[in-house]
Amino acid sequence: MAAEFMPVAGVDVRELAEAAQFASLADETPEGRSIVVLAKRQFDLRDVISARATMARRSSRFPRRPG
Predict the structure, then answer these.
(1) What is the pTM of this model?
(2) Hey, is 43 helix, strand or coil?
């Protein structure tokens, strides 16, 4: 199971955790769920993901007008 986020040089660990959590949201395996849980516990990212999901839903209801 996920135990630590290990970023490469130049990558912020919180940004890595946010990207990993977002990528793992639909992953129903124990490994995928453990990444989501780890990000929530270490960085309290629950609100970040919820906010992004809300923004995505809103933007899909109001598509941008071309040019």
Answers:
(1) 0.67
(2) helix
